[in-house]
Structures are given as structure tokens and as C-alpha cells.
TrEMBL record:
Name of this chain's protein: Germin-like protein
Family affiliation: Belongs to the germin family.
GO cellular component terms attached to this protein's record: apoplast
Organism: Lupinus luteus (European yellow lupine)
Location within or outside the cell: Secreted, Extracellular space, Apoplast
GO molecular function, one term: manganese ion binding
Disulfide bond entries: 25-40
Residue numbers binding oxalate: 102, 107
InterPro entries: Cupin_1, Germin, RmlC-like_jellyroll, RmlC_Cupin_sf
Recorded superkingdom: Eukaryota
Signal peptide: 1-21
Keyword Cytoplasm tagged: no
Length: 208
């Protein structure tokens, strides 16, 4: 019995020492992504620049009149294995972030300017809506549909933090109208007018 405890203690010490010795795992993007993440870059090839992301700037607005600059593991390899990532958002006056969801990540919005509505809908269809201004922090639980809407007189901006180094995203409009599913089927399953569906499919480069 004493031998068993000794071996257990030895293995625990070995495992703990190994974990402590690995201070970081900079993603080797050339190694290929896997369900377990990217492999680690060799420590001998790591420099201080691997721990810096230098492109966290306002981007060009998209068709919804907002810009989003991601700092995910694919862009910032130092995030590999850490379980979080960032984004920078700017919504032009009258712009909106469409209804979407992140199936694998909670989102935290840190408002840095302007006035905009943040909203999410729970699985039992309860709506939580809040008007955010500079200094507010708003949490959107993982997997729930949510959107943002600028209601101010100027631009609105924020920093978002995700509980995943590479969060997924599914935008409802693109999921419905940016595909090749037959418009008649979409009409029957959503009660939308088929003619309007075809117009939206043309807008979102869908077909059918």
C-alpha cells in the first residue's frame, strides 16, 4: 500500500512539474488546427512579438454598417489554449449588428462610446434588452441569439471578449438567405413572403 501511495505521489509531482514548466503555448499556425487546438510553437522560436497583437484597429464598415476587428487565435497565436479572445466593434449611426449566435462562447461587451441597444433572447424566448453607454459592461450567455443597434447621434463602439480563443458565429440573415435552400421551403418554414425571400437571397448572394 505504501508503494502505491509513493507511486501516486511521484506521478502527481511529475505531472504538476510538467504543467508548471509549460508557461505558454504559442500557436504554430502552420501545424494545422485540430479539435484540441493548434500545436505549440517551439519555445526556441518564440519572441516577445508573439505576445503582441498590433492590428486591433477600427476596420471598414460592412453591409450592416458596422466594422468588426477580431483578435482570435488565428490572428493572435498567443491566445492558444487560453480560452478567450477579443474583438473591436464600431457601429455607424443607424447601423446594426444583426441577430446572430456564438454556439461555443459567452460574449462580454465593454462599451467604449456612443449609445446603442444590446439584446439577447433566451431559449424560453424571454428578451433582455439594455441601452449601453460608455463604461457599461454587458454579458451575453453562450449560444443565445443576440443583436446590437446604434440609437445614438454618432458612432457607437465597444470591445468584446469571448470565452473561446476561436468563437464560432452564425448570422441569422445569412443562414436564411445566403444559402441555396429553395425559397418555397424557407417561406413555408418561416411564413415569409417568397418574393421577399428571393430579394433577400439576391442581397446575401444566396440562390434557390
Amino acid at each position: 500500500m505504501a508503494l502505491v501511495f509513493f507511486l501516486f505521489a511521484f506521478l502527481l509531482c511529475t505531472i504538476t512539474s510538467h504543467v508548471v514548466a509549460i508557461d505558454f503555448c504559442i500557436a504554430d499556425l502552420k501545424g494545422g488546427d485540430t479539435p484540441a487546438g493548434y500545436p505549440c510553437k517551439s519555445p526556441t522560436n518564440v519572441t516577445v512579438d508573439d505576445f503582441v497583437f498590433s492590428n486591433f484597429k477600427i476596420g471598414k464598415p460592412n453591409q450592416f454598417n458596422f466594422s468588426f476587428t477580431p483578435a482570435f487565435v488565428d490572428h493572435f497565436p498567443a491566445l492558444n489554449g487560453l480560452g478567450f479572445s477579443f474583438g473591436r466593434v464600431e457601429i455607424k449611426r443607424g447601423g446594426a449588428i444583426p441577430m446572430h449566435t456564438h454556439a461555443d462562447a459567452t460574449e462580454v461587451i465593454i462599451s467604449t462610446g456612443g449609445t446603442y441597444i444590446a439584446c439577447f433572447i433566451t431559449s424560453d424566448n424571454k428578451v433582455y434588452t439594455k441601452t449601453l453607454t460608455e463604461g457599461n459592461i454587458f454579458v451575453i450567455p453562450k449560444g443565445l441569439l443576440h443583436f446590437g443597434l446604434n440609437i445614438g447621434k454618432g458612432k457607437a463602439s465597444g470591445i468584446v471578449v469571448f470565452s473561446s480563443e476561436k468563437p464560432s458565429v452564425q448570422i441569422l440573415d445569412i443562414a436564411l438567405f445566403g444559402n441555396n435552400l429553395d425559397s418555397g421551403i424557407i417561406g413555408k418554414t418561416t411564413y415569409l413572403d417568397v418574393a421577399q425571400i428571393k430579394k433577400l437571397k439576391a442581397l446575401f448572394k444566396g440562390s434557390g
